[in-house]
Amino acid sequence: xxxxxxxxxxxxxxxxxxxxxxxxxxxxxxxxxxxxxxxxxxxxxxxxxxxxxxxxxxxxxxxxxxxxxxxxxxxxxxxxxxxxxxxxxxxxxxxxxxxxxxxxxxxxxxxxxxxxx
Amino acid sequence: xxxxxxxxxxxxxxxxxxxxxxxxxxxxxxxxxxxxxxxxxxxxxxxxxxxxxxxxxxxxxxxxxxxxxxxxxxxxxxxxxxxxxxxxxxxxxxxxxxxxxxxxxxxxxxxxx
Lengths: 117, 113
Description:
The complex is a heterodimer. By secondary structure, chain A is mostly beta strands.
């Protein structure tokens, strides 16, 4: 079974600064997908960014980028120019590419990000 | 918005009573999921469905059952609610088994007293 670990329960960053959230995962599969979801106080789960394991290029979405290290099974999220609206719980998630598994998402425990003005 | 509606959004119930949560989607997606979210555990999969009348267990399925009689509806039932089932429940949908993003509903807050 796959596992996802987020070793930082809480992080803080000054507005306009850069912060990196860590995520590691364990899998024996070679093809899979990785996601970062943001959960603000409203509890809505919002997709931030996704990465296909077969792609070597790191995904980028505006101020959000990832550092995907497949051999190390590491998938960190970098938030540049942090804004007050970035304050939220961030979840790293793994999804198998194998259809027979139901391709459910496996989540880490989350990192609570605080943005200080 | 991904066209997912959960009902009820908030519910308080007594221990031992049955409870059914409903997830309704307008996207005609094949895959539907029920997760629960508790402090320190992230989101954990309860059950999922890969088609009408096709369901399977997730990692925390004890005490829960599901049904899917139509593509658009996925029901989660707590046969006899316990205080340990107090949680936030999320429904999610996906068009395919891989590749496509999984989209989430807004959550249902359940308190068992």
